[in-house]
């Protein structure tokens, strides 16, 4: 008679579930761990669903946790053998791209720009829109023709950006504002300017919800701007403290 071990029913249940658990694990994406380095992914300052219904939670999770993380990971990777560049603050690195070796310059430009742009982007959202007031509101009226005109011109710059890129409001040390647009992950920081706020018009920022309707996304985005945070950036810029 064959000698078979008796397996308790509780253990049989666990063993029977192993194939299903293995299949589930294989079905999940494996996210690469970021190498150690000077740059890190800043956490979202709010829940991923905080900007709904205007920006959906899935877009926020993918945009922050995958796209922004990829810029940080790649930047740390490319700088790991360049200690002097790795030690530079992000805004200084972007302002001195001509000092970056030519063989890594494009990679640094794209990924440092992507890191800076997104590090600015997350904190200025999570709000409830409305109309800015105080010194910021006065500056918008003085330099950009008022809030409604600013929105119209900003949206036009965003829809007019061919392909991927960003639209920004820049702020000078004297508080003067201007609207500008840049391709890909370029940023006014590359020209020694400072960004007050900006909006991402890469398709990954809006395609799950808006598909090719970039204009609808740009219009909806104003509903999630945190004007208190933008006002803080304005004050920091005038004091010379605003970096990214």
TrEMBL record:
It catalyses: 2 superoxide + 2 H(+) = H2O2 + O2. Residues 132-233 form the Manganese/iron superoxide dismutase C-terminal domain. Transmembrane segments: none annotated. Residues 39-125 form the Manganese/iron superoxide dismutase N-terminal domain. Residues 1-32 form the signal peptide. Keywords: Metal-binding, Oxidoreductase, Signal. It comes from the Bacteria. The keyword Signal applies. Its EC number is 1.15.1.1. Belongs to the iron/manganese superoxide dismutase family. This is Superoxide dismutase. It comes from Pararoseomonas baculiformis. The lineage of its organism: Bacteria, Pseudomonadati, Pseudomonadota, Alphaproteobacteria, Acetobacterales.
């Amino acid at each position: 008679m064959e000698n078979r071990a008796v397996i308790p029913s509780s253990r049989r249940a666990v063993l029977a579930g192993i194939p299903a658990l293995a299949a589930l694990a294989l079905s999940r994406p494996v996210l690469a761990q970021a190498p150690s380095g000077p740059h890190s992914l800043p956490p979202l300052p709010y829940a991923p669903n905080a900007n709904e219904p205007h920006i959906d939670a899935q877009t926020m999770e993918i945009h922050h946790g995958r796209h922004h993380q990829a810029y940080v990971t790649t930047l740390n990777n490319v700088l790991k053998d360049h200690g002097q560049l790795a030690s530079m603050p992000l805004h200084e690195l972007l302002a001195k791209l001509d000092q970056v070796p030519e063989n890594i310059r494009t990679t640094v430009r794209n990924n440092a720009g992507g890191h800076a742009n997104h590090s600015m982007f997350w904190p200025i959202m999570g709000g409830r829109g409305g109309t800015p007031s105080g010194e910021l509101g006065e500056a918008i009226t003085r330099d950009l023709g008022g809030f409604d005109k600013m929105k119209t011109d900003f949206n036009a710059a965003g829809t007019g950006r061919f392909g991927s890129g960003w639209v920004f409001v820049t702020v000078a040390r004297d508080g003067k504002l201007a609207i500008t647009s840049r391709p890909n992950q370029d940023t006014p920081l590359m020209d020694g300017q400072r960004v007050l706020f900006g909006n991402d018009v890469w398709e990954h920022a809006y395609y799950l919800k808006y598909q090719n309707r970039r204009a609808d996304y740009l219009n909806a985005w104003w509903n999630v701007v945190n004007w208190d945070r933008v006002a803080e950036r304005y004050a920091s810029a005038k004091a010379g403290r605003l970096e990214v």
